[in-house]
Amino acid sequence: MKIDKIINNNVVSTHDDEGREVIAMGRGVGFKAKEGMVIDQSKIEKLFRLESQNSIDKFKELLADIPMEHVQISAEIISYAKSVLKRPISQSIYITLTDHINFALERFRQKLMFHNPLIREVKSFYHEEYLIGEYAVAMIEKELGIALPVDEAASIALHVVNAEYNAPMGDTIKITNLIQQVSDTVTDYFQISLDEHSLSGERFITHLKFLAQRVFAGEHITLDNLEFQEVIDRLYPEEYACAQKVQALIRLQYGHQVTEEEVAYLALHIRRIRMEEK
Questions:
Q1: What is the Cα–Cα distance from 115 to 81, expressed in whole angstroms?
Q2: pTM of the model
Q3: How far, in Å, are 28, 45, 59, 66 from residue 39 at the CA level?
């Protein structure tokens, strides 16, 4: 592997055996080096392969001015997240999470930490990701001696969620808010509490995540099964009425028409959490 471009003393760009551009990071890998030189393999600590040239260019720009320790910690957190979640995570997280952690550490040193208003929602709806955030905060304290506030666990968790959705952070926040609105509507309607970690609670939240994604993607479930809807309405009229209230909320606030099939499925999930509550 030969150096294509020196990004800084510890980061260079190169190409792998398949001709794809990759980013090589390691202590001193670019120090006193020149473009075209063969890379000292013993100095490479991490190779980054991103999904597109645009992502690679953004990552190179980001790495130019970030301490190597911040990049290493971000990479370790991402590796841990992948091992825990065992589901696809967009490679864009190498850009977004690395940038966030670097900025958070800069803000901490300047005593400019902020409260995360979604911490309760993140804990409730993204439990696995929040635990990853807690792991990340603990790792940062161990490696750098910086004790970030608990709000940062939620912020890091949102970046992981964002990479799972493979959507802009703005959409992830809107999805989280919508899940909370629907959950509040259902619990207020029946005056019940929701155990997000119970089997029915987890299924309900998972359903709301996909529903929210469909809302912001402008997609619908359409089965053309009128009998199914009528059966659910007849068997569970209270739950169906509650689901229709959710339908109206989404139409009024988000301009999205939830189909009657969606209403019926939502009513079924509401029935399950009501039965569990009883």
A1: 23
A2: 0.83
A3: 11, 12, 20, 21
5 beta partners: 13
Residue spans of alpha helices (H) in 47-198: 53-63, 68-85, 93-109, 119-125, 127-144, 151-165, 169-190
Q: What's the confidence (pLDDT) of residue 159?
A: 95
Q: What is the DSSP string of 174-239?
A: HHHHHHHHHHHHHHHHHT----TTSHHHHHHHHHHHHHHHHHHHT-------HHHHHHHHHH-HHH
Residue 44: burial class (beta carbons within 10 Å; 0-12, 13-18, 19+):
middle
- What are the mean pLDDT values of the chain's consecutive 10-residue runs (278 residues total)? 88 86 87 85 86 86 90 95 92 93 92 86 94 97 95 95 89 94 96 89 92 88 74 94 97 93 93 85
Task: Provide the β-strand partners of residue 22.
Answer: 14
Cα-trace Rg, the chain: 23
CA angle 236, 264, 189 (to 5 degrees): 60
